[in-house]
Write a structure and sequence with these properties.
alpha/beta; 4Fe-4S; 12 helices
Length: 366
């Protein structure tokens, strides 16, 4: 197409992508990739077993592979994450790691060990474009989407630490994964679904974590919630609601100006009906902002008699922010009002507060 004389056309630079990794690919794609490297297709199964079962990327330790093949196959196991900083609390059973990606972008993951389970909280984007004002990540803006393998590697890194006995309590396995770290998971839909499949597929295809142990959060991207319901993956949907009325939610969760509370909840109920999975309503309690008893009543009326659980989150304040956690008495009153409506409700365990537990705090400090 011609352009007026003297007018320049701006072409945005193409952002470099992470190197292709085994975890980006389905097993069929891995076998094709191995064949392209001049190896027999079954080597993909061996390589997958080393990564997903033995949790190693050191090809020299893969003695069942011919020595001549190892260097070629190493191309499918490029380094993805570099640990920049690690903080621990709860006697070492809560560990937060700041990772640097290949292009310098920073993301965070958290490992939380409980007596009956180990949960990994993972990031799906470097930064976030949802712009929620009380969230450290949201205020940082979006740098880029993460690849499927970059997401999976956070869980594999946690699994390695557990297997090596680095977390007090002896060797263990990751049993739960929550997509509640940096980013809006459903805004990086294809890569997140790929990561979920790698997490739940049995070895050597993936890590073999139960789909019921995986939770995908969203601020309410309605079309993507519908797509997720059709994936055949019975993961838990966590809806970050934070306000039951449009007037306040428009401010706290700006995407609400696109999809209102009623539309978002309708999508959540449709998800529950299709998957038979209880929806988790995430609600950060913010002092004098959304913690009034009348709002608890409104929330209770909206969600009662649904396949739902309300998860109240005492806000983890970020340095210099005007937003802070509710008073204990207001939190208790909020819980009582929800219970009055017969709504199952819990207050989230506030682990990690002393190690900048809120998503984005470590990255912002760095």
């Amino acid at each position: 197409m011609s352009q007026p004389p003297g007018q320049l056309t701006f072409v945005a630079p193409r952002r470099a992508k992470p190197a292709r990794h085994l975890a980006d690919l389905s097993m069929a794609e891995r076998r094709a990739a191995v064949t392209e490297l001049g190896e027999k297709a079954f080597r993909a199964d061996q390589l997958s077993r080393h990564y997903f079962e033995r949790l190693t990327t050191d090809v020299q330790a893969m003695t069942d592979l011919p020595a001549a093949s190892r260097e070629k196959l190493a191309a499918l196991l490029p380094p993805l994450l570099t640990s920049v900083r690690e903080l621990a609390t709860d006697r070492g059973t809560t560990r937060k790691t700041l990772w640097r990606l290949f292009d310098g972008a920073l993301v965070e993951s958290v490992l939380m060990r409980y007596p009956d389970r180990v949960t990994m909280c993972v990031s799906s984007q470097a930064g976030c474009g949802m712009n929620c004002p009380f969230c450290a990540t949201g205020q940082a803006g979006l740098t880029r989407n993460m690849s499927t393998a970059e997401i999976v590697e956070q869980v594999v890194a946690g699994a390695r630490a557990l297997a090596a006995g680095e977390v007090p309590g002896g060797p263990a396995r990751v049993s739960n994964v929550v997509f509640m770290g940096m980013g809006e998971p459903l805004a990086n839909y294809k890569q997140v679904i790929g990561a979920v499949r790698r997490l739940v597929e049995p070895a050597p295809h993936g890590l073999g974590i139960s789909a019921r142990g995986v939770t995908v959060s969203t601020v309410g991207l309605v079309p993507a919630i519908g797509k997720l319901a059709d994936e055949g993956l019975p993961v838990t949907l966590a809806l970050s609601l934070h306000a039951p009325d449009d007037e306040l939610r428009d401010t706290l969760v700006p995407i609400n100006t696109r999809w209102k509370v009623s539309e978002v909840l309708d999508a959540a109920w449709a998800y529950a009906a299709k998957t038979k999975r209880r929806v988790s309503i995430e609600y950060a309690l913010i002092k004098d902002i959304n913690d009034q008893e009348w709002r608890a009543d409104l929330l209770g009326k909206l969600v009662k008699n649904k396949l739902v659980h309300v998860n109240l989150i005492p806000l983890n304040p970020t340095p210099g922010s005007k937003w802070t956690a509710s008073r204990p008495e207001d939190e208790r009153a909020f819980v009582r009002r929800l219970e009055f409506h017969g709504v199952p409700v819990t207050v989230r365990d506030t682990r990690g507060r002393e190690i900048d537990g809120a998503c984005g705090q470590l990255a912002a400090a760095e």
